[in-house]
Amino acid sequence: MDTADQGAAADVLAAAESARSPVKRISEQFPGLDVADAYEIQLRNIGRRVRAGAVIRGHKVGLSSRAMQQMMQVGEPDYGHLLSDMFVAESTPIPAAALCAPRVEVEVAFVLREALPAPGCTVPDVLRCTAYVCPALEIIDSRIQNWELTLVDTIADNASSGLVVLGGRATPLGGLDLRTIGAVLRINNAVVATGASGAVLGNPATAVAWLANKVQPFGVRLQAGHVILPGSCTRAYDVAAGQVVRADFDRLGSVSAVFS
What we know:
Layout: H1 3-19, H2 26-29, H3 35-51, E1 56-62, H4 66-72, E2 78-83, E3 103-112, H5 123-129, E4 130-140, H6 151-156, E5 163-166, E6 182-187, E7 190-196, H7 204-215, E8 227-229, E9 237-238, E10 244-249, E11 253-258
Parallel strand pairs: 1-8
Antiparallel strand pairs: 1-2, 3-4, 3-8, 3-9, 4-5, 6-7, 6-10, 10-11
């Protein structure tokens, strides 16, 4: 794609998000769209939001678990940006109508003490540079109609990012096996899924290292204080107004969100 088409695709997605009106696949509207184009489109809309006052607060890995790859019919992870206006406190109701087609994911969030080195970031680097982990719910959303998307569509759409809710307990990594953290997802008190952190590339720290290395060629570094979401312990589940979502984690506590 040339830069004019990249800009036009970014405009389509920005308008869809503003109007809360999903559009048909970007990959159909702009034939020839590849992964490099998709990340450029993502960066254009992130830049638009930063110029409007948002601040980059972290990044996310998407599609890092086999369950999510199967659900979305893709074969590799992707990444997106987390902005200051995406973070919602547990006590704040989330208006479902403010999103296009929200789904919830259960994640172990990493908060960095130091910037991650890259290229060549490793799991030991992630462990050394992480201040703590905490429970998280990622509210993913898609500006593509009916969630019928390809890898390049979700990348262009900021990895289908929506909102983030962090739990209040910070847990240092000392003595914690990041591979074996169990999680239970409840919607309106009914258990809908169980999973474990090892579903995320075998170890969520592996996903964080992957991310640090993946973004480095784009001139991006995972900075101290950033929140990193490595991917979901379970598949994603649709959520709607009137629902209360809660995730309970072994040793990490819980996190909840209310949809109004």
